[in-house]
Here is the input.
Amino acid sequence: MSHILIAGLGDLGAGLAEQLIANGHRISAIRRGAQAPAGVELYSQDLTEGAAMLPPDPVDLLVIIMTPSEYSEEGYLQAYVRAPLTLLESLGRQQPLPPVVFVSSSAVFGDVDGVVDELTPPRPSRYNGKVLLAAEEEISTRSLSTVVRFTGIYGPGRYRQIDKAARLARGEESLPTPQWTNRIHRDDCVGLLHSVVLGWLEGRDMPPLVIGTDAVGGRNLDVLKWLADQQGLTLAVPDAPAAGKQVRSLYIQQGHYSLRYPGYPEGYAQVLAEKSSAKFKVQS
Here is the structure.
């Protein structure tokens, strides 16, 4: 049994904690709130205000899954740079730092066209990508680490694109410019993190960077048309080329993790079914 500390116990962190507990591991966690899955030893605190409470026993692996309190440069700096470094400094006073799994974003690649993967140099142009890249680099100088860069996350309770497709079909919004989009289902985010964590715990030679994205991607207009079709609506879209980066995961392509939802049709079918079930429960 290994002892894993998860900093950030939101949707992904809680899902990962549940899987690792099911594997027989001990899980400690830090979050601002007071809720945690059964079996998690919770140290409720705000890391932007310091790391006052840490597990007294040695930690074998640290997973950092932060969420900014506000979507601004200051919010990103607090969540992705200051809070993790505060944690690392505090933990480092108790023990040699363990390996770190740090959740980042494909935003670090910047606004580029064409295929990108783990071998593509990052060129962030906006504050979010710049801050995340700075966080990745700083953490990698402190400890052995794997950065996991996710593309757009969708899944249960995330209905923004589904609702947007309906509004477009009803003529309530104008069609967006054709753009290549990249995404990964929430369950595959958790599954991929679980794969990376187990790799470290089992002593495998883990890469410094893993990209989390599905095997399909898709032009935004095609995804929106498909979502409209699934809701019994009609949405006509032009057959125009799409700009933007097409994100690929060498880690997944090489067979280190098998996607539960390889593309948006499989993943959004699950989300649509969940949305329909939730609506039925409310009505009944």
The chain has a mean pLDDT of 95. The chain has eight helices and 13 strands. The two ends are 44 Å apart (CA to CA). The CA atoms of residues 210 and 251 lie 6 Å apart.
